[in-house]
Amino acid sequence: MKIGYVQIAPVLGDLEATIGKLDSLRNEFKAADIIVLPELCNSGYNFESMEQARVTAEDAQTGPFVRYLCSLAQEHRQCIVAGVNERDANDCQLYNSAVLVGPDGLIGKYRKLHLFMNEKDYFRPGDLGLPVFDLGVCKLGMLICFDWIFPEPWRILALKGADIVCHPSNLVLPGLAQRGVPVHALMNRIFVVTANRIGTERDMTFTGLSIIADPKGNVLAQAPEGDPQVRVVEVDIHLARNKMVTPRNHVLEDRRPDQYHELII
Amino acid sequence: MKIGYVQIAPVLGDLEATIGKLDSLRNEFKAADIIVLPELCNSGYNFESMEQARVTAEDAQTGPFVRYLCSLAQEHRQCIVAGVNERDANDCQLYNSAVLVGPDGLIGKYRKLHLFMNEKDYFRPGDLGLPVFDLGVCKLGMLICFDWIFPEPWRILALKGADIVCHPSNLVLPGLAQRGVPVHALMNRIFVVTANRIGTERDMTFTGLSIIADPKGNVLAQAPEGDPQVRVVEVDIHLARNKMVTPRNHVLEDRRPDQYHELII
């Protein structure tokens, strides 16, 4: 199957402009079975105010950006993962979320568990755990940006059977996640697609270098630092079902949970 | 304080020869406060038989290699971490262990939790958890070689307050641990000293490239691939007490243990 990323600069507070950018690139990613877009694609990242965060948020079921993604997914017969500034329909709280949409519409969402810096002022921490979605051809989990620095969510997704972790990002710490992501892929024997953004919003510059890593920790594709790029690569997703790192070592079954109780303190 | 590694080739089945090698290098590591030696230093690694594994094993309290280490530690007023083929005094089982010795003798030991390949034929899996030893100047934990590929033990040692993880190794998978170790150091904001061995034993070649990593994931020192090397570097061990990866993100307190229950399944 074909997996890939779209590395672009979403436009802060201008959804139409962002959709225009995606539209201009759609021919490049229409053949992907799973394509990953950056974090907070519908809003941009570096809000000037709570008000700006609120007006750019949308409902994950009915919002205009998610509806646009659903139309793309339907037309391309593909799955799309994208970061969304989500406003909860019930309590009107904001979440830094990722949606998974397919040809038949919204499949599910994930809400970022580990908020970075000033995100703590705008978003509620995720409250939906770490869901894994069975797409038939593979099982898919999602993490968002700074989640990468916590080994726990990667491990949990692998334990729940994820073959691929889609990782919409707005990374700013130079090069750190790009070193860590292939190591997480290797330790859990999974595929990872990190779709990072580029560009500058006020005092923040995003670091690009989007990455696709395989279950052996190989980097299959990496984007440039400052330019937009779409990459789609063909992979054998079932490599992620082989958890043997040597003929006698299974990366999950060799764990020693009887010795791991401190992990949930 | 000064921390370092000794990268050598222990001699399979010839403890005297191994001690001779260490003796010839002792001037290079005598100034270290903490020095780390490779895995299974007293025996070598690639046993031809259970018999060879047994005759090269020793008691961690009274064995000749540990007594030699204690004499070095006393003379140099330093702590030494070394891999030891350990025979348990009670049940005569073998463990792939690491000992920590200081100027006053044996401080403690760790038994490898995650056995690699044919080690499963010779050793019992570790049964002493993941101890952390308070040396006054710092808190020290130990992992051994293949343990590196499991994120759980690193995290547990950090949660228990380890400032430094000493990591005696006999690594054979080329370059993988050397990519992973700095990422574990970064994710847990700790120092790591990986003392790998070199040389070939029958069909196994060990990969050298011993490494010292700091809490920001920087590589402070790295040995060559095939040659012996002693490196000792001066570090501010208290950097490991600062767990803030950004002004608003603490790598341990930002964890979401309420969402992590799958980890101990």
Question: Could you characterize the architecture of this molecule?
Answer:
The structure is a homodimer of 265-residue chains. Chain A has 265 residues and is an alpha/beta fold. Chain A has one domain (2-264): Nitrilase/N-carbamoyl-D-aminoacid amidohydrolase (4-Layer Sandwich), CATH 3.60.110.10. The first copy, chain A, is built from six helices and 16 strands. The first copy, chain A, has helices spanning 15-29, 50-55, 64-76, 119-122, 151-159, 176-188, and strands at residues 2-7, 34-36, 79-87, 94-102, 105-111, 132-134, 139-142, 164-168, 191-195, 200-201, 204-205, 211-213, 219-222, 229-234, 244-246, 249-250. In chain A, the strands form four sheets. In chain A, strands 5-4-3-2-1-14 form a six-stranded mixed sheet, with helices on one face. Chain A has a six-stranded mixed sheet with strand order 6-7-8-9-12-13, with helices on one face. In chain A, helix 5 runs parallel beside helix 6 (176-188). The N and C termini of chain A lie far apart (39 Å). In chain A, 55% of the residues are buried. The model of chain A has no long low-confidence stretch (mean pLDDT 97). The interface between A and B is large, with 48 and 48 residues.
